[in-house]
Amino acid sequence: MAEEKWVVMVTAQTPTNIAVIKYWGKRDEVRILPINDSISVTLDPDHLCTLTTVAVSPSFDRDRMWLNGKEISLSGSRYQNCLREIRSRADDVEDKEKGIKIAKKDWEKLHLHIASHNNFPTAAGLASSAAGFACLVFALAKLMNVNEDPSQLSAIARQGSGSACRSLFGGFVKWNMGNKEDGSDSVAVQLVDDKHWDDLVIIIAVVSSRQKETSSTSGMRESVETSLLLQHRAKEVVPVRILQMEEAIKNRDFTSFTKLTCSDSNQFHAVCMDTSPPIFYMNDTSHRIISLVEKWNHSAGTPEIAYTFDAGPNAVMIARNRKVAVELLQGLLYCFPPKPDTDMKSYVLGDTSIVKEAGLEGELPQGIKDKIGSQDQKGEVSYFICSRPGRGPVVLQDQTQALLHPQTGLPK
């Protein structure tokens, strides 16, 4: 290994995911092993993603990490577990252009710099830790020439954040809970890719981007210890729903998909209420959005929109096609208008072409008014994000997108 002060870097982009059959509760807190299977949809990384640059250099004196521009500690067990597992699988790396060789045995001695940035709020119930740990593991695996498939890598990412294992694939993804004590069979697998059901449009109402009062980790622990409903859910309800959901996704059966998605979200929040003390992740605006979607589907005579809420008040609405999504956005903006001084460009993010199609000038069409019913109170929404099912992680070749400086390995 050459003695000069070189820096080798990799930058990766990883999507976030939204569970349609929820993961809630661990049977092993250290290895992060769940008490039930779960299924998620990966969101288009152009709209919601984590960008991570990882660098190695003999000049680094310790492992360091910066998240959204701020240096954070890597001493936590979740980071340490991921770093240990990846380092143990590292292989020889050669950069012929720079004349750098890193032998397999050198990885134990070399230190890393990691910079990570989410293009959406951290810890607000938008699965930021899932995208973050998935991106960390994916980028490090590329840097260290780790020869493992995405499912094997998912078992490492899982040790950082359970849901992270599902962000190593695009499309619809299943996390198998596994049965082995060591967790080696608790891995994610792709059910279908992002092109399989590309009619779907996803609209997220960010009701609050504040950090939640009860973290998912402590919430799960309390539910496992105190909720009888959770035990029933894990043993009796989820195994049946998983099979039904796999079938609905395979057949693009939106009616079954909606019924399962909404029911599972509602049961997850019922488990939170059944926990002692009860956990409230949703708020009045969340409940108003549920009511709006239920009225809409009833009025349409067939399910056109599914809703799901993770551990936070933000609503994820999945429209069966673009036409429905355009009408839904019109209805949402009528019920939850931006404040007078808010620019529409900062109120609807992501795939903004839907805003153009929604043609927001003039009166709301009567057909949409009929679907949403009377909406007297104006709710509180910070902003909307329009997205769709998306691909899995990728390495970014464009060095200008790196978050660390190529000469120093420090944040730009």
From TrEMBL:
Residues 15-188 form the Diphosphomevalonate decarboxylase-like N-terminal domain. Residues 202-395 form the Mvd1 C-terminal domain. It catalyses: (R)-5-diphosphomevalonate + ATP = isopentenyl diphosphate + ADP + phosphate + CO2. GO terms for molecular function: ATP binding; diphosphomevalonate decarboxylase activity; kinase activity. One of its GO terms (cellular component) is peroxisome. It is an enzyme of class 4 (lyase). Keywords: ATP-binding, Kinase, Lipid biosynthesis, Lipid metabolism, Lyase, Nucleotide-binding, Peroxisome, Steroid biosynthesis, Steroid metabolism, Sterol biosynthesis, Sterol metabolism, Transferase. The keyword Lyase applies. Its EC number is 4.1.1.33. It is found in: Peroxisome. It holds the Pfam family MDD_C. GO terms for biological process: isopentenyl diphosphate biosynthetic process, mevalonate pathway; sterol biosynthetic process. Performs the first committed step in the biosynthesis of isoprene-containing compounds such as sterols and terpenoids. Belongs to the diphosphomevalonate decarboxylase family. This is Diphosphomevalonate decarboxylase.
